[in-house]
Design goal:
- This protein has about 190 residues and is mostly beta strands.
- It has one helix at about 5-30; strands spanning about 35-45, 60, 65-75, 80-95, 100-115, 120-135, 140-160, 165-170, 175-185.
- An eight-stranded antiparallel beta barrel has the order 1-3-4-5-6-7-8-9.
């Protein structure tokens, strides 16, 4: 089996793991172990052609605004299944004769592990994101759809059992885009 074959099977493996853990869910969690997270932040697009940077007439703005919305279900102690939408925003490339915009967003499904320490928790997770990548310029628009890994790491401060504020970073490794977020989480 090649790495490409393994990457093609990865989404199905994560879905199988999620289904398996949800079937075990009644024995390991209570019905109130749901939470919703909403986050805003800044993204950074790391993919640029190095040769373009040598030309002083070319401007590259690789930062954008980012946001995500996630619904999480606790399936084991400290482990949640997470589904959501992430928007990494856009980056701009300005040439003397043309302007281009690159946008990346998509839906994801994955798992996250959080270690609780008093009022704080540290979290790390992985997911598969179905990403839409779009490049738009004067000539037209080009889109492609890819599945790729999404990794995350973060920390939260819990004001009580139902409300937390946190910071986290998420990165889509294939598209070479990452973002830092400030998030609010409401548990119910």
């Amino acid at each position: 089996m090649t790495i490409a074959d393994a990457l093609r099977l990865l989404p199905f493996s994560i879905i199988a793991l999620v289904v398996f853990t949800l079937r075990l869910e009644p024995a390991f969690s209570s019905p109130t172990d749901w939470d919703v997270s909403l986050a805003v932040g800044y993204s950074h697009f790391g993919e640029t052609a190095n040769s373009l940077l040598l030309d002083p007439t070319i401007q590259i703005d690789r930062r954008g605004s980012a946001k995500y919305l996630a619904i999480n279900k606790t399936v084991f102690t400290n482990t949640t299944v997470e589904a959501g939408f992430i928007d990494f925003g856009e980056a701009r490339l300005v040439l003397p004769s043309i302007q281009g915009v690159r946008r990346i967003n998509g839906y994801y499904l994955g798992m996250r592990y959080c270690q609780q320490m008093a009022d704080f928790s540290l979290c790390a997770g992985g997911a598969i994101v179905g990403m839409m990548r779009e490049i738009e310029d004067r000539i037209g628009r080009d889109r492609d759809h890819v599945r790729e890994p999404l990794i995350s790491i973060g920390a939260r401060y819990h004001f009580n059992s139902q409300f937390a504020i946190g910071v986290d970073g998420r990165s889509a490794t294939k598209s070479k885009v990452s973002a830092g977020f400030i998030s609010t989480t409401l548990s119910f």
